[in-house]
């Protein structure tokens, strides 16, 4: 029988990679299915992005297109599905999710809350961020105010930076007025929409804090169970197709964005090896601290690490 | 189908509005009634409606609203307004001003406008300014022989300046709803606000020259032997404290030193200090200011909660698409659509409060206008200018009610008549700002 | 009738007490903001906790004053006709409004709010921000409480108006005809 699926995206539907992927998913489902009637809402139309999970959990909303990072405060382990500092590359990430047991853990954590998740949108590497100072040694970060989120934010704290959290609309004015000295945001194509090149001198590439990330379609479990196997399969397949669509949707736009930044006088830099080594060391500390606090985090981290170890012979030989 | 339901939703709301039941509960209640209707329709296989479960979003949205950092300035600016009201600054100002401007044509009315600007720049609430000016200035104006209607118009329009001139809770709510930095809105509103005040002064001056019978010059008998120096000293003393406060609060927001929340907190503390140092603040006063603020904040938030329920049900019925399609279907240029939107807001302002319009209508039309390439700060300020007229337009003009409640010896008809020239001046200013966007965009850049 | 009156009085006393107590948090909020400002600009310390404390305090003010504001009849009304209605007619407006608009809305939202709070409690939810405040279920619970108190205040106003219609002399006029909007907006 026909099933109706109200989905809200955590991002505006025009935003490259994230919001556009939600639109792509909805368009594909509309084109390929006669018995799934999708209604897609843009960010904030029904609830704020941070409340999508609650609405889906309670069944007020059928489904949400979002990032696992948005519920990291409650389920810390989910941070490892939304992007890992010094983590796997995009393909290796997918590999772990589908073949290395990642998806099972991911679904286990959500199942306890009455929510089903379908990985749905592979995001390319993020940039290292916008700064108004040069980072030549790890100590250059001391006392600087930086906007950073999640695990990477903890890493920056260990480097001596004071980490602030700002809504995406508040970053630009605060960077402009010197309230913050730097910010991590997203990949170049998305950063370009924010106009950061007008208020920051340096753009660091590549980002160490998120080599790849995965968005998800979360669905209320009762809703999911009410669907036929064919409907469920179609959603799973469409999301797999969306993974591919998303990662290949931003390559040209990223390159063009960097060209635009260069033209605007932005200095493109990369982190020196000593700085990266310090970040890596702090990342390992943060990871083991988190693992000691939360059993699910430990289980997820162990799964990811053992998978990476298992495939390392091949990944190292082929050299990415 | 969607069009029909959206039309019904709005018209039933408007109809019940005039019953006099609290607006916040009408908004929420009509939302729930239509969600119930939606659930019934779905059982008859009629879709694209809001269902009862939609009300679950309202709880989430209520939490988002109370946890919003960007709405805290609303509470602080209201507190600041009530506190300044206690400090007796306005009384001292009017005493000083009338001596300076007494001999100028329309001098007393001009003094009221100037005081109104100072009040506007120091509070974000208009009710307080209108009532304050009505109780202090209206009797003085009547005694000096000013026509009642023009006096009421001056007081009403001037008292409303506070909603446009920053700090303004309307701009705080707009910033929150439309995702525009409040600092930018504040800066964008300064020049239009001053332009509006200037137009009031010019109008009063010319009118007093043409019709001196309605605005006679003051007879200042008792003060004829006071030196100019004393007058200047007097007025400086009266102006010093509030101006310092205004400069601190607005200055720190505009210079980017403090966030609007921080600045509003400093303002609230500063106003408390002023009231205390003038010897007018007792423990009881502080408590009364808290109670007043608590109630005002509660009724404003209740409106936000109710409007959020109404809006989410409206979205379920496809309200966004209906409005978007209607605007795109107009055979007009982007400028034409903008004009249409502003005109509709002006018309709605006759019946609705600024809150309902900012909460329900503005988020619907803003994305469409921004997509046309208009500067969002400029569009928001145009809306704000337009909403400001809603305080003065009958039948639902809050400023008019305030005057009526504060001054007993004037009829509603006279108040309405007095509002007309000032509504015209506001529309004139709106037109000027619409023609010259740089009046808004220059300061934020 | 006397029994009804005493129930009404008790509920209203509760609304007023909670509202007045809650609004006295405002000076604490102001002080918190000042401390935050001083820490940031003098000592160069930015604390996420302190910023969260601010909206928590503000939220407590709002939620505790909702019922109180209805008790003193300051929830804004479009009263161009209302102020000319007879006391009886105003009582009817209030009764019908509470039964068909207020109750469906406030009770449904309160119920969802309690669900939110209890789910939050089951997770022992804290702030999603690193180093944010713990125990987010408390503030969610307070939201549900404030809405429930508002519903209760609605019951009091309903009873008061019904009592007035039945025995106009035994109770005071429920809603006062004067325009109370002297210091709003
Ligand atoms: Na103001
Ligand atoms: Na009006």
UniProtKB/TrEMBL annotation, chain B:
Transmembrane region positions? Answer: 30-50, 62-84, 104-137, 149-173, 185-210, 238-258, 296-316, 336-352, 357-374, 380-403, 415-436
Molecular function via GO: transmembrane transporter activity
Question: Which keywords annotate this record?
Answer: Cell inner membrane, Cell membrane, Membrane, Transmembrane, Transmembrane helix, Transport
What membrane topology does this protein have?
Multi-pass membrane protein
Principal location listed in the UniProt entry: membrane
Q: Which Pfam families match?
A: DctM (PF06808)
Q: Under the cellular component aspect of Gene Ontology, which terms does the record hold?
A: plasma membrane
Q: Which InterPro entries match?
A: DctM, TRAP_DctM
User: Where found in the cell?
Assistant: Cell inner membrane
Domain (TRAP C4-dicarboxylate transport system permease DctM subunit): give its ranges.
Answer: 11-438
Q: What does this protein do?
A: Part of the tripartite ATP-independent periplasmic (TRAP) transport system.
Q: How does it assemble?
A: The complex comprises the extracytoplasmic solute receptor protein and the two transmembrane proteins.
Concerning its family, UniProt says:
Belongs to the TRAP transporter large permease family.
What protein name is recorded for this chain? TRAP transporter large permease protein
Q: Which organism is it from?
A: Marinomonas spartinae
Q: Its encoding gene is what?
A: siaT_9
From TrEMBL, chain C:
Looking at the UniProt entry, the stretches that span the membrane are 21-41, 53-70, 91-114, 137-159
Q: Does the keyword Nucleotide-binding apply?
A: no
Per UniProt, the keywords (alphabetical) are: Cell inner membrane, Cell membrane, Membrane, Transmembrane, Transmembrane helix, Transport
Q: Which GO terms describe its cellular component?
A: plasma membrane
Q: Which GO terms describe its molecular function?
A: transmembrane transporter activity
- Identify its membrane topology class: Multi-pass membrane protein
UniProt superkingdom: Bacteria
Name the InterPro entries for this protein.
Answer: DctQ, TRAP_DctQ
Q: What is this protein called in UniProt?
A: TRAP transporter small permease protein
